[in-house]
Amino acid sequence: MIDEKVKKLATAANFGTITTLMRDGSPSTHVMWVDADDEYVLINTEIGRMKYRNVKRDPRVVVTVWDAADPYSYAEVRGEVVDEVRGPQARAHIDALSQKYNGTDFSDDSIQTERVILKIRPLRQRSY
C-alpha cells in the first residue's frame, strides 16, 4: 500500500529519481517522471535502458519524489520491482505522463525500444 503523501507527490507533476544497482553493486540514479496507483510506484522506461537491465538483474530500487513548489517536501520509497507492463498500456502511460509534465503526447521519435512500466512495491516509505 502506498502512503498518501507518496501517492500525492507521485501523481502530481513532480520529478523523482530512481536509483538502481549496477552489476558491480554501485548505485545509478536517474531523474524521472513518476506515477503511482494505490499499491505501486510506477516508472515508465524502455527495455533498452540500463536502468531496466539493472532491475532485471537486481529488483531493489529507491525512488525519491520531491514537491516542485517546495523541494524540502519529499518522499522516499525503498522497494523492489515486482512486475512490469508492456505493450499498448505502457505506450498509453508514457503519453499520460507526457501530458502531465509537458501538456503533449510523448514523441514517437524519442522511443528507441519497447516502453515498459515498472511496478515498484514499497518495502519502506518515509516523507517529510
Short description:
The protein is α+β, with helices and mostly antiparallel strands.
| Gyration radius from CA atoms, angstroms | 14 Å
Can you list the strand order of the major beta sheet?
2-1-5-6-7-4-3
**Secondary-structure element string:** HEEEEHEEHE
Average pLDDT: 95
SSE-based structural type: alpha+beta
Distance between the termini: 18 Å
* CATH architecture classification: Roll
Q: Can you characterise this structure?
A:
There is one protein chain. By secondary structure, the protein is α+β, with helices and mostly antiparallel strands. The chain has helices at 4-11, 50-57, 88-102, and strands spanning 15-21, 27-33, 35-36, 41-46, 60-67, 70-86, 115-127. A seven-stranded antiparallel beta sheet has the order 2-1-5-6-7-4-3. It has one domain: Pnp Oxidase, Chain A.
Q: How is the secondary structure organized here?
A:
Elements: H1 4-11, E1 15-21, E2 27-33, E3 35-36, E4 41-46, H2 50-57, E5 60-67, E6 70-86, H3 88-102, E7 115-127
Antiparallel strand pairs: 1-2, 1-5, 3-4, 4-7, 5-6, 6-7
